């Protein structure tokens, strides 16, 4: 070796670098393994609905903490039962239930088992938010099935999952997997759809791969869903000028009961949309409603899920998204311009009927979304987006619109996390004339006033009277400047 080194010093340098590189890789792999929770989830019964979970933590702990509330659904921790630690020799470590979802032991353990009681939520709309299981299908979300914290400095940051389902059932997920084995570096956004009648279709859309999974029988085909979702995804790629970093997954599940598509609930986690939709209607009606729902939910793949922003900014990623989706519906021909105006009028009436409509700013309402102010986040947020869009079009002579705000938002540096409200308000305020909108409605609790802004477009507000709701109508005597602005809004 010394002779070779003497003759070829460059070779020695390469050997040292190669060894050092291998050492770094081994350390990285070892560190990754050390942070991984290994878990087996088994469906032991669908009626009653129960799971058994066998887990190995990367480091021993005395404490387990499970999520007890999410999206207004309370008591999730009460579903965790029969928690036991297991010593290396197979003997049991006693673990006591200190509070709903909170478990403590007298000695450390790393291997433990527990069962999860999964009755369907009392409200069907909650099924898109939390895990549930019945004889027809199951929606399993690692966020409420796995422990959130172990109070150990080296707690797990990833998970290796083995999933055992009943004979004849299949598995779909937003995770990459082989057979029944899956891995995730973000358990919080990991979702499984299981059942005996799953249909899966893949579609390539430019740089984005779309997977559509349907459960049960529907009056439409998988191609119908892929076509609608594909058009919407392409539109949002154009608007944001941003390509999704992960494949998009859409899971479509029947809304329980004999109901039509007007009954629906959805949630977007990471790269997956979980949609519950009523199916008692004609193919045309179900697809029409599906498109309108997806125009909102699919945008969440971008906002907030592709943004590195921190804080409570529901007013923007829910309220503004509602308006952005409405514009998409109009552009793609899913609704007419009259439908567009009627929707704004209905939302205005809903906003006006909320007791706290003139008591909370959008910032305050976002902080209280899951307690008392959820409707305000949606209604006032959507109305402010409408007013901002119209105002921006006017001051730029129809050169810019709310679309440009989103494009600018996605041009921000992708490193680190920024304060969401400061960042978004900063972008909205770049047109100095529009600062009053963010000051009055986002940062303060001024009641929304439509008329001063819509009048420039030749649009009039016909206030609600008795049982008749408000209407936005076009002024037949509108001048040329008003008609010009109206033309760029259509």
From TrEMBL:
SUPFAM superfamilies: Metalloproteases ('zincins'), catalytic domain. It comes from the Bacteria. Residues 293-373 form the Peptidase M61 catalytic domain. InterPro entries: Peptidase_M4/M1_CTD_sf (IPR027268), Peptidase_M61 (IPR024191), Peptidase_M61_catalytic (IPR007963). This is Peptidase M61 catalytic domain-containing protein.
């Amino acid at each position: 070796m010394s002779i070779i080194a003497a003759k070829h010093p460059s070779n020695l340098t390469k050997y040292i670098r190669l060894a050092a590189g291998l050492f770094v890789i081994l350390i990285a792999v070892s560190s990754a393994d050390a942070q991984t929770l290994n878990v087996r989830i088994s469906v032991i019964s669908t009626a009653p609905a129960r799971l058994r979970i066998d887990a190995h933590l990367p480091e021993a702990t005395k404490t387990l903490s499970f999520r007890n509330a999410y999206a207004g659904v309370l008591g999730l921790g009460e579903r965790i039962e029969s928690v036991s630690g297991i010593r290396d020799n197979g003997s049991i470590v006693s673990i006591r239930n200190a509070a709903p979802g909170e478990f403590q032991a007298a000695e450390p353990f790393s291997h433990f088992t527990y069962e999860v009681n999964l009755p369907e939520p009392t409200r069907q709309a909650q099924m898109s938010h939390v895990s549930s299981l019945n004889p027809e299908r199951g929606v399993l979300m690692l966020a409420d099935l796995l422990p959130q914290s172990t109070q150990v400095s080296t707690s797990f940051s990833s998970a290796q999952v083995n999933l055992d389902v009943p004979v004849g059932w299949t598995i779909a997920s937003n995770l990459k997997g082989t057979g029944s084995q899956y891995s995730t570096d973000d358990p919080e956004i990991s979702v499984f759809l299981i059942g005996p009648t799953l249909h899966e279709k893949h579609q390539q859309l430019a740089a984005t791969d779309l997977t559509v999974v349907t459960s049960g029988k529907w009056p439409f085909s998988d191609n119908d869903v892929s076509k609608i979702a594909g058009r919407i995804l392409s539109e949002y790629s154009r608007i944001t000028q941003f390509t999704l970093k992960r494949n998009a997954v859409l899971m479509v599940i029947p809304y329980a009961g004999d109901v039509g598509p007007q009954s629906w609930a959805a949630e977007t986690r990471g790269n997956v949309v979980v949609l519950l939709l009523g199916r008692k209607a004609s193919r045309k009606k179900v697809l029409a409603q599906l498109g309108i729902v997806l125009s909102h939910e699919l945008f969440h793949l971008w906002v907030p899920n592709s943004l590195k922003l921190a804080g409570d900014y529901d007013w923007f990623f829910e309220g503004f998204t509602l308006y952005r989706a409405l514009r998409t519906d109009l552009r793609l021909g899913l609704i007419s311009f009259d439908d567009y105006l009627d929707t704004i009028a209905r939302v205005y009436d809903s906003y006006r009927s909320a007791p706290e409509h003139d008591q909370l700013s959008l910032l305050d309402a976002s902080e209280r979304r899951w307690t008392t102010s959820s409707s305000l986040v949606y209604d006032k947020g959507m109305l402010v987006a409408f007013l901002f869009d119209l105002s921006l079009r006017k001051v730029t002579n129809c050169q810019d619109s709310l679309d440009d705000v989103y494009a600018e938002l996605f041009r921000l540096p992708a490193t680190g996390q920024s304060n969401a409200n400061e960042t978004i308000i900063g972008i909205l305020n770049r047109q100095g004339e529009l600062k009053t909108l963010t000051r009055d409605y986002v940062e303060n609790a001024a009641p929304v006033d439509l008329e001063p802004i819509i009048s420039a477009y030749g649009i009039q507000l016909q206030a609600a009277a008795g049982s008749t709701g408000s209407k936005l109508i076009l002024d037949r005597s509108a001048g040329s400047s008003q008609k010009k602005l109206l033309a760029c809004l259509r």
